[in-house]
Amino acid sequence: MAKPLRLWSRPALFQLNVLILIGSTVLCLLLQLSRLPGMILLDVTPNWCLIWVVTWSIKRSPLQGLIAGMALGLIQDGITAPSPTHALGLAIAGYITSTLDVRRWVDEDFICAALIVFMMAPVVEAVFAGQLALQGVWDSQQIWTHLQQVSLSSAIISSLWTPLVYVPLNRWWERLHDLLHSR
Predict the structure, then answer these.
(1) What pLDDT, on the 0 to 100 scale, is given for residue 148?
(2) By the 8 A CB rule, do 38 and 46 touch?
(3) How confident is the prediction for the chain on average, in pLDDT?
(4) Is 50 exceeded by the pLDDT of residue 1?
(5) Residue pair 47/121 in contact by the 8 Å Cβ criterion
């Protein structure tokens, strides 16, 4: 029979937390690459990396949000295409998210997370579109039309799926905090 979490040592809890961080990150990256039925809106899938970065950044410092966004964006670049980079948009989203005072808006955490994802999706898409414009890949009219379609669809579908990532991770981090500070 497994020991209750409150009986685990600090190093064991730390190792479990690292496993949960890595596992949730890998899961979000794999979901980012998949096109599952019910997760597509106007040919756009949820931005799982953005959802993870917002989930991480809500209760963290701006530097931690920035680093998490940059790291996850670079990993996403490594498994997709490195140019234009996803790291810049996710880093900006992580930084902005961590500077927001979410407790002032809404009492329900997962609603705040969904609202923030809804607000950050157009930011991430605009940064990506800006990079496309600077590279001269598309003309400005194509980029603007694409940005309008993708950013709204991404915001809607990503915010709807946010609780799937936010609720379990947030509950784990709250439980971990309680366990570590009750000793």
Answers:
(1) 83
(2) no
(3) 85
(4) no
(5) yes
Which residue in 94, 80, 76, 93 sits closest to 127, CA to CA?
A: 93
What's the length of the chain?
Answer: 183
Residue 46 token pair: 């949820």
- DSSP element (H, E) containing 65: helix 62-79
Q: Which residue has the tokens 């530097």?
A: 63
Burial tier of 19 (Cβ tally within 10 Å: 0-12, 13-18, 19+) = exposed
Is pTM beyond 0.90? Reply is: no
Q: Which residues pair with 41 in a beta bridge?
A: 44
Structure tokens at 48: 């799982």
- The per-residue pLDDT for range 13-48, each reduced to its tens digit, is 889 889 999 999 999 999 888 887 777 777 788 899
